[in-house]
Structures are given as structure tokens and as C-alpha cells.
Amino acid sequence: MDNKAQLLNFLENYGGGLMSFALSLLGNKAEAEDACQEMVVQMLKHWESFEGDRNLKSWAFTILYRKCLDQLKKRKRFLNFFNRAEVNYQTSLDDPAEEYFRLVLEKNPEHPRALTELGDLSFLAKQYEQAEDFLRQALALDSDIPKAHLISGLIFKEKGDYEEALLHFKSITSRCPDHEEAIYYQALILIEQANWPQALEVLNSLVGLYDSYEIYGYSLRALSYLMLDNLAEAESDCRRALAISPNYYLPHFILGLISFQRENWSEASQNFLKSLKVDKTFDDGHYYLGQAYLKLGRLKEGQSEIKRAAQLFEFAVRQTEQLREQALAWGWLKKAELLVKRKKEIESKINHCQELLASK
What we know:
Blueprint: H1 3-26, H2 29-45, H3 56-74, H4 81-84, H5 97-107, H6 112-124, H7 128-141, H8 146-158, H9 162-175, H10 180-192, H11 196-207, H12 214-227, H13 231-244, H14 249-261, H15 265-278, H16 283-295, H17 299-329, H18 333-359
């Protein structure tokens, strides 16, 4: 993987957090975007000198922190940001973001924004109890911080407590109706709960924003329409998603399911292949492609796909069991229950794979 591809992969995972960090410091979207762009340029410029044993996230936050400080100095607001918190700005600029926000709290222990940012960093590091503690403190000081509600909702979602998660996401959208992330995660939970009518209602709001989550909105709405047997609307939304980008596996897969339901096996197999071109490890893609091939009489190819699906499902079972054990160790009983259900669903597909292979 070349430098650009590695950096793009990193930004896909942490870009939102970096932008939020810059915005929290600068309070200006345009300047935050400029700081992030300058960070990317510097990372690419010095990539070869980056030491692999260092923490890439800390390196990125350190560079971004410097860029934000430069912006603040230019605006002559260096002593005014973070509500004039008196921080020793002469500390080493190599300190990671966590150290910086802890310095803020040393001077102002009741700084809700700093508590929120520390909660976010703890969440990213999977230090969930610490994250919850920071976020509880932040919301006790200011209950109207969208980011504190967002991260709290994500923690409850991770723990399998969907009702509590929804409360936090709805708290955001009640104040900010066009908050994409809050709407998106509401939809994901409703889909997990198989609450398709309500998921449709939420997804209508998401696609109406015409922003970065639009492709996911159309794809998930297509899935909801499919589950409600509205094939025409499902197909239409898949086309809309693919018009935005053909490099997302889900609309291809849903189109395959639509054709599968219509017993158009040739068209179904073509769409499943397209989904697998995007993600070769997509277990359900192999599972349904194998069945479509068997319907077409392409027995050897069908059996090969079914075997591949079974292997991927078996891996998913082992992974799910490990997650269940971890959830129990952390006391996440609701998450453990969800994983038991998920494991049974996967095992049912494995049994079906075995039946299909035995019958041919």
C-alpha cells in the first residue's frame, strides 16, 4: 500500500475525530478544514521519516494541534480560546491531544468541551468506562453538547443498550434536526431492531440532507423497502446510491436480493458478483451468489461459492463467540444477548450451506 492509500485508510477511520478536534479549538469550520488540509500535506511530506513504532493517531493529532495553534496566533486569539482557560502553552508541542485536554482540565476542571473531547478520545481507545465518566461530567455541566450525546449514544450502542443509545441520538436531533451522524445511527439501531417503518421515516430525513451520508441513506432505505416488500422503491434507491458511487457493496447486494426474489437468477448473480468485487470477504454475497449459480445449473461454481460462504460464516461464529465472552466479562449483558441471537442466525446459514452441498 502506497503512502497516499495508507493515509486515506487512516483518514477514513479518524477523519471525523480530527475535524472535530480542529473545530473545537478554532470554532470556525473553514479554518478547521484548512488546518486539516495542512495536516494531510505535512503527513504526506514527512511520511517516509515516520517511525512505524510510533502511534499514527497521536502523530496526526500533534501535527493538527500545531496547525490549529498557528491559526489561533494569526487571529490573535491565542489567549481566548476554550473560554479563556489559562493553559501553559509553552508545553511541548509533541504532547498528544489527550495531554492537551488534560492540561485544560487542570486549569478548569469543569470545562465541558474538554471533558467531551477526552470522552471521545477514550472511546476511540475503547476505554469505555473512562469515556462514560468524562461524558457524564460534561453533560452534567452542559446537557446541550451534541458531541457528548453522540459519543454517549455510540457507547450505549456498542454495549447493546439500544434504547439508551436512541435517547442520546434523539436528544441531538431534537435540537439539531439536520445532524447527519445522529440521524444515521438512529437508523442503524432501528434496522438492527427490524423496525422497518420507523427506519424509513428516519432515513427519509437523512437522504433529504444531500450530504456525506446520502449514499448510506439511500442504501439503508433500499434495504428497509426490501424488507417491507416494496421492491420498486428498493430498486430505485439502489440506483440512486450507485449514481453517487459504484464502489459501495450494499446497493449491489440489495439489487441482487431483489432479482433473487424475482427469480431472475442471472441478474441476481451479476449483482452479487459486483458486491463481491467491492468486498471479497462479504459472506452473504458468496452465500446468495452460490444459490443463484445452483439455480442456473452452474453446479461447480455454485458449490465453490457455498463452501466459501460456509468458511466465512464459521469464522464469523468464532468471532461472535469471542465478542460475547468479552461482553460478559465487561458486564454488557444486553450485548451478550444480541450476540447469542446473531450466532444462531449465522449457524442457521451454515446448516443451510451444508444442506445445499449435500443435495448436489
